[in-house]
Amino acid sequence: MVACAVTIAGSDSGGGAGIQADLKTFSALGVYGASVLTAVTAQNTVAVTAVHAVPPEVVAAQIAAVLDDIRVDAVKIGMLGDAALIETVAEALAGYRGPVVLDPVMVAKSGARLLPEAARAALIVHLLPRADLLTPNLPEAAALLGLPEAVSDADMRDQGARLRDLGAKAVLMKGGHAAGETCTDWLIAVEPNRLDAPRIATRNTHGTGCSYSSAIAAGLAQGLGLSEAVTRAHGWLHAAIRAADRLEIGHGHGPVHHFHEVWP
């Protein structure tokens, strides 16, 4: 049987991030994707101009509908609009026993804030303990901890360990926002694992966080171990970023090329 994963996230009308990026990623990696919509956003490669939250009871109904009928091998959680919705998702997943990848979507590539400050505590209390893997970028990790952004490998490892102490079973500290010719991520699990890739000079990185976490969830759904799933996703995303300029989508931060292995 084909592996199945569900994404719980907001939509991106521009198609580069959110639910759209998650489903493209699942498909590109050979996983059937189901979806639970948490918000409708009006956005493109330049800006987010409107956000409409889906009522919590409708989100809960979507999760129940998927889990009642489809064998879900992994869950990816992305954009959640407020504390009430965070609590709703945590409660709806209470009986689910498969792996959960939590991408704490807080700020869009354009700079728009996607998670109110008041919801930070709810995310920590209700969802971090449910996460088999938390995948923050450097601004998100700092916001969750109330600390300055990490500027060194030691900072990244320390903040990843602090986030594990808050309840996440493992943490992937993503270094895309750092400076330097090499982009370094740290997987903080039983032992820290460093992943390096040459930094690619491109503005087309919209949806990288969504796609990375979804690629990891796809690997977990297919039965890969955590380290193997992260390593495969890391290489796949690097290739998707390298091919992104070929798409020429929009006038701002364009999307990565999810199907770089399938069509030019």
Average residue pLDDT: 94
Shape: globular
How many structural domains can be distinguished in the coordinates?
1
Which strand order do you get reading across the main beta sheet?
Answer: 3-2-1-4-5-6
Helical content class: 25-40%
**Major sheet details:** 6 strands, mixed
> Which fold name fills CATH's third level, the topology?
UDP-N-acetylmuramoyl-L-alanine:D-glutamate ligase
Q: Give, in order, the helices and strands.
A: EHEEHEHEHEHHEEEHH
What would you say the CATH architecture is?
Answer: 3-Layer(aba) Sandwich
Radius of gyration: 17 Å
What is the highest CATH level, the class? Answer: Alpha Beta
Percentage of β-strand residues: 15-25%
What name goes with the CATH superfamily?
Ribokinase
Counting H and I runs of at least 4 residues, what is the number of helices? 8
**Structural class, from secondary structure content?**
alpha/beta
For the terminal residues, how far apart are their CA atoms?
29 Å
Low-confidence stretches: none
Number of strands: 9
